[in-house]
């Protein structure tokens, strides 16, 4: 499913915002904490390289599982893996009994505390997995459970609880795998200090995260769907509930899926260095995205929504291109003019008022004599400012207690609630001009 997610990311980016990276200056990357040392990364990369070498070009799930169950890492790599995982074979697979015609394995990752020495430590409970395939090696079903993973640093930490993965895949005659993958995390808690310490105050909590991806074959075409949700995001006394993101990419030639799969596999098995291999993969994903646009692929935003104090704000829409030819990819203004997008936006007026009240609550002392009155006034003021300005400017209307607007882009023109918005000059000079 890793390749499917890469495919989704690249294709969605191509459809939603066609930007040529080589025409814009690169922004400096923010400095992030070093979660993995270079030594740890090198060990993991070498383990992946040895696994790929053992699997070769094999595509049969049954044979791939058999190969992994017998794999012995190189003598120089084993002590390094033991340092990270506590064992020389991090995830051993063992055959288990099952129904006739099935091949079953059980895999486990033993509990461990990995102290890197760079300030970031990892500890986890036992991960277990049950994997099933058929004798033909065309199907693969897996169920994974992982009760706890903790990432601890002196300046902050995170705990992931009750993680699950369920996948159902079937390889088609073209070699591409179709199916579903469901991911779940019971909770993620973020703390301002190392977990377990007396000062490990909780800063944020995510409750019941769920994600589902699916790849479906429909005749000569395929489609990809993705949906993720969070029951609640808690920070301090505030809760954002039922946050959802869902989209579907349709009109994908199945042939393109198979060719991309083969191309990415070839790069995974190449002898190129990791950075070079990733660069080649991204170029291939970009080329595939262009072919999707030419084929008429469309991105449907099925839902982007969240609730605050019982009121739900949402966005739905669709993004596609009209009759794109190869020459359009060399001419940014021409490509943008063929972009067609439509979005519907819904924001309850009550939600705007609640945000204003919540903001005021943070700044008005609770012992202020007329605190409640001031908070109510702040909420009404927020409605007047946001809703009033949007309506009087013609960018939205209020219907059934909701601020509603439609956003359209077609023939290079942007309109919001039917009102034309002037855009800056989109004439981009090519790098080689």
What features would you highlight for this structure?
433 residues; disordered N terminus; alpha+beta; 9 helices; disordered C terminus
What does this structure look like?
Helix 1 (2-16) packs across helix 6 and helix 8 packs across helix 9. Mean pLDDT is 84; it is low at 1-32 and 428-433. The chain is α+β, with helices and mostly antiparallel strands and 433 residues long. The chain has helices spanning 2-16, 38-55, 61-70, 78-85, 254-268, 274-295, 332-337, 349-363, 371-392; strands at residues 93-96, 102-109, 112-115, 121-124, 127-134, 139-153, 156-171, 177-191, 202-218, 221-235, 238-253, 298-308, 311-321, 339-348, 397-399, 402-410, 413-416, 419-421. It starts with a helix and ends in a 12-residue tail after the last strand. The chain has an 18-stranded antiparallel β-sheet that branches. The longest helix has 22 residues, at 274-295. 17% of the residues are buried. The chain is 30% helix and 40% strand. It is globular. Strand 6 (139-153) and strand 7 (156-171) form a beta hairpin. The protein contains nine helices and 18 strands. It has a domain at 322-433.
């Amino acid at each position: 499913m890793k390749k499917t997610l890469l495919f989704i990311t690249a294709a969605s980016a191509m459809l939603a915002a066609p930007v040529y990276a080589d025409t814009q200056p690169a922004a400096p990357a923010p400095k992030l904490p070093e979660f993995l040392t270079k030594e740890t990364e090198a060990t993991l990369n070498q383990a992946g390289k040895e696994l790929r070498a053992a699997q070769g070009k094999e595509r049969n799930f049954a044979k791939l599982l058999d190969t992994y169950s017998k794999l012995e890492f190189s003598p120089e790599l084993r002590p390094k893996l033991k340092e990270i995982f506590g064992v020389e074979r991090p995830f051993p697979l063992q055959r288990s009994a099952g129904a006739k015609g099935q091949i079953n394995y059980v895999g486990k990752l033993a509990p461990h505390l990995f102290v890197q020495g760079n300030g970031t430590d990892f500890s986890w409970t036992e991960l277990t997995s049950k994997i099933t395939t058929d004798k033909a090696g065309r199907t693969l079903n897996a169920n994974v459970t992982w009760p706890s993973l903790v990432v601890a640093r002196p300046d902050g930490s995170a705990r992931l609880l009750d993680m699950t993965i369920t996948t159902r895949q079937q390889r088609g005659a073209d070699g591409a795998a179709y199916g579903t993958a469901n991911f779940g995390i019971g909770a993620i808690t973020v703390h301002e200090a190392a977990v377990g310490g007396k000062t490990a105050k909780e800063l944020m909590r995510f409750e019941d995260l769920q994600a589902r991806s699916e790849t479906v074959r429909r005749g000569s075409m395929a489609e990809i769907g993705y949906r993720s949700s969070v029951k609640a995001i808690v920070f301090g006394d505030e809760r954002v509930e039922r946050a959802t993101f869902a989209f579907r990419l349709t009109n994908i030639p199945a042939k393109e899926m198979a060719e991309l799969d083969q191309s990415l596999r070839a790069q995974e098995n190449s002898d190129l260095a990791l950075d070079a291999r990733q660069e080649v993969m991204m170029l291939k994903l970009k080329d595939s995205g262009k072919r999707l646009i030419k084929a008429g692929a469309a991105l449907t935003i099925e839902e982007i929504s969240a609730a605050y104090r019982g009121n739900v704000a949402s966005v739905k829409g669709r993004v596609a291109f009209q009759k794109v030819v190869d020459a359009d990819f060399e001419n940014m203004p021409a490509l943008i003019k063929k972009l067609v997008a439509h979005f519907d936006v819904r924001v309850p007026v009550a939600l705007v008022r609640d945000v204003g009240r919540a903001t005021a609550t943070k700044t008005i002392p609770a012992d202020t004599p007329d605190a409640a009155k001031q908070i109510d006034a702040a909420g009404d003021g927020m409605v007047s400012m946001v809703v009033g300005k949007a309506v009087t400017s013609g960018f939205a209307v209020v219907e059934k207690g909701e601020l509603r607007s439609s956003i359209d882009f077609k023939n290079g023109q942007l309109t919001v609630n039917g009102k034309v918005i002037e855009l800056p000059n989109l004439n981009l000079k090519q790098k080689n001009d």
